[in-house]
Design brief:
Elements: E1 6-8, E2 11-14, H1 21-28, H2 31-36, H3 46-62, E3 66-71, E4 78-88, E5 93-100, H4 109-123, E6 128-134, H5 138-146, E7 150-160, E8 166-175, E9 194-196, E10 200-204, H6 210-217, H7 220-223, H8 234-242, H9 244-249, E11 253-260, E12 266-276, E13 281-288, H10 297-310, E14 317-322, H11 327-336, E15 339-349, E16 355-363
Parallel strand pairs: 5-6, 13-14
Antiparallel strand pairs: 1-2, 2-3, 3-4, 4-5, 6-8, 7-8, 9-10, 10-11, 11-12, 12-13, 14-16, 15-16
Length: 369
């Protein structure tokens, strides 16, 4: 691909120039950029920007890739960078990546640049584009979805972390003949960011919820109803909270907190996982803190969750399961309209090599109470 100015979706893609130096430093020295692009020099200096403009970007073009400055068409001021790397001509494949200056964030610049370069790449013969994101970089994952890329899987330990070690990358892919519009989400965002019935509110789990989740899911009575009945360690809960939004975006699971609507105090947690996306089936789970039990909060939370699952998430069936002696949880399910569908003997792992039975419930849209 040879440099060609591209204007589309409200941005201009052009070659870098020396008068971009200050804006390149502002973008590449920014902590958020360096967090998610571990190969950036740190600290990032004016000399690094000068090297990129005079040597690094031209080398990308010479190697069969692309290195565009993203500029405002009205002023030609630099807003970020977008490019193609890792070209594999025999496969018609390349990797697309981008960064945006702090001052330009929140304006759709990354999405516009990604769409513009994607369409230009396809028009010049590329067949498959990969977009790799850090597993916690949910803003970039939203850009991928908005630009028509589909989640394809996890590249385990695919990238070195700044300061040592390695981390996973999520692979998002778009083919030349894929639809141009945003990729439909398997698990859409909650309308307005939450669900509520005036008494109970559900909102997405986040990184700041670690203490609450660790306290809840290590309680003996909560652990006793898990399979196997072993408390999670804090690191696992921290990871669960950090990746909650990402796993929602990839369509794996929607994790939520249950809150008292009046006070905003946390009452518990719940979640919906896609047990069989092709069949339109999801599975739900929930747990409450002791002081909120016996007040109908679990029933309200499950009802809200089921209404969202059958509505915006467009599922056709919900499943839930409990160990046979968890009678309070079974009553919650039945109050919402779930029906007992069977006992799966020895389905779950217990302690010391034992197996536990699983009591299965199901709910169809017309049965929701």
């Amino acid at each position: 691909m040879t440099p060609k100015i591209v204007e589309a979706y409200g941005v201009r893609l052009r070659p870098f120039r020396l008068d971009d130096t200050a804006d390149v430093v502002a973008g590449c020295a920014d902590p958020l950029t360096r967090r998610f692009i571990s190969g950036m020099p740190s600290p990032y200096t004016e000399a690094d920007a000068h090297w990129w403009i005079t040597e690094g970007a031209p080398a990308a073009w010479a190697g069969g890739g692309a290195a565009y400055a993203v500029a405002d068409p009205a002023t030609d001021r630099l807003l970020g960078g977008v490019g193609l790397s890792q070209p594999v001509p025999t496969r018609g494949q390349a990797e697309i990546g981008y960064w945006v200056t702090p001052a330009a964030r929140g304006r759709g610049v990354a999405q516009a640049a990604t769409r513009a370069l994607t369409e230009h790449a396809f028009a010049t013969g590329v067949v498959r584009l990969e977009l790799l994101t850090h597993e916690e970089n949910t803003a970039s994952q939203r850009v991928a979805l908005a630009a028509g890329f589909r989640f394809e899987g996890v590249r385990r330990a695919a990238n070195p972390s700044r300061g040592g070690g390695r981390h996973d990358l999520l692979a998002w892919v778009r083919l030349a003949d894929d639809p141009a519009g945003p990729t439909p989400r398997l698990l859409p965002d909650l309308p307005g960011g939450h669900l509520t019935d005036g008494t109970v509110t559900l909102r997405r789990l986040g990184p700041d919820d670690v203490d609450l989740m660790y306290g809840l899911h290590t309680r003996p009575e909560v652990v006793a109803n898990q399979a196997p009945p072993v408390p999670p360690d804090r690191a696992a809960i921290e990871r669960r909270c950090r990746l909650a939004e990402s796993q929602w975006l990839t369509g794996d699971i929607a994790r939520m907190l249950i809150l008292d609507a009046a006070s905003g105090d946390p009452a518990g947690s719940c979640g919906l996982s896609l047990s069989d996306a092709a069949a339109g089936e999801g599975t739900i789970g929930y747990a409450l803190l002791p002081q909120w039990r016996g007040r109908g909060y679990a029933t309200r939370a499950v009802r809200l969750l089921a209404g969202w699952a059958f509505g915006p998430a467009r599922l056709a069936r919900l499943a839930a399961a409990t160990v046979p002696d968890n009678v309070p949880s079974q009553r919650v399910l039945e109050n919402v309209g779930f029906r007992r569908e069977g006992l799966l003997r020895g389905r779950l792992p217990g302690l010391a090599g034992t197996r536990l039975d699983d009591l299965v419930f199901g709910l169809l849209p017309e049965e929701l109470r």
